Structures are given as structure tokens and as C-alpha cells.
Give the backbone structure.
Amino acid sequence: MIAGQLALLQEPAAEPLENHHDQTGRALQVEETQTYLDEDLTIQSGLVAGEVPKEDERVLLDGHEIETETWTVTRRVASEWVADVDGEGWILAERTHTSDLEHEPDWPFNEFSKLAGPEIAPVRLKPWEFVRRQRDEGRTWTVEMTTHESNLDDTTIEWGNGALKSKAVNSDVGVALTTFWNDVHVRLVIYSSGYLAIWEPAEMKPELLGRFIHEEIVPIATFADDVEVEEDEEAEQQTLEDSGAEA
């Protein structure tokens, strides 16, 4: 499975990423760089390492009395990544960790911000827009799961036969589906939190994954925290198709 959290640069970087290391335990390894001159697109991939905060706890027992002590330590972690920093300006990180500074984005996006230049922030994704793009492009696609927020605190999840296309086009929390993109069978789940996971194909070359994100995921990303689902004029027709009725 391929999975990660997406973040966008506030503006494209001046240059692609380069290998880097310093005395603080930070390191960036660029394993592959694929440039498409006809599209002015550069897809890079590799590993990033750094230190993140971790809270440790010790429990002390004195008879029936219990005391706890907590303190913060650092530990070294690593994550795979795929990015296009000097074009559309995006990074997909396999693993993230909360930063100990409130004004900083999660690790490793805080590290990339220092290395790439522009500020980086996690983004929201619009699952319903991804679904509508599959439909509008005339692709063959099926739905496995739809997730909607009802009222303010309730979330409705529909699986299997209950996950209808008519509901998927308005999914504001998440959606799982299968689609055919560039003759590739892609089975994935997308959440509005900015997280996505691709189950099939089980492996994708970084340049293929990068192109998929570039073409299909970045267009549905936004910095806005509160995005409302736009009314879909074709939802009623999709409901008829779900039920097997003739238009």
C-alpha cells in the first residue's frame, strides 16, 4: 500500500530539492529525480530523517499510592516522500509527527520548509471533487466507501452496496473507489484531512505516483479549513443510475 499526507508550498521553490545533512540529525536523501521538459514538471523522491518530540512516562508505586512523572525527549525518525517543489509545489510524506512548536507544521514538512525555502502547510482535500472528475472524464469507476458529515458531530459511513455513486459525488469527509487512470487500475481512499492511501497497484514507481498526484490530487487540494460541498446538478441522474432506472 502507498499512503501519505499531502502538503503544499505557499509558492513554488526556486530549485528542486538536493541532498542535505547537518550536525543536528537532519538529513534529506534524494533518490530519484524525473524531469518532464515538455511539461516543466520535476518529480523527486527519497527519504528524510530528523528528530521529533516524544513524551515518556514513569509510574511510581508506594503501596496504594500512584505517582506519574512525564518528560519530553527526542527520537530520530525517517519517512519516504515524493514531491514536486519547484512546479506545483507539493510534498507527499509517508509519515508525519506533531511538531513541538505551535507555529510549525508537522514533521517532516517543517524540515522541507527549511530546505525548499517557501513555507509549507498541510492541506484539505475535496473527496467529492475527485469523484466528480472521474465521472466527468468518462472513466470507468466504482465506489467502495462514502463518508459524510451530518450535523456537526455525526459522521455517516456507507460501505459496499450502500456506497452509491450518488452519495460519493457529495462525500465531504472521505471516499474509497476504484478508477482507471491512464490505463492504470487505481484503488484508493481519500480523506478531506489531506491523507490518501493507494491499495492498488501495491507499488508505483515514484514518477508514476508523482504524476497521479500532480494530475488528480493537487487540483482537489485547498488551504481553506472549511470548504462546503457545491451542489451537484448531475447527482439526481446518478441516483437513477445507482437504482438501475432509465433516465
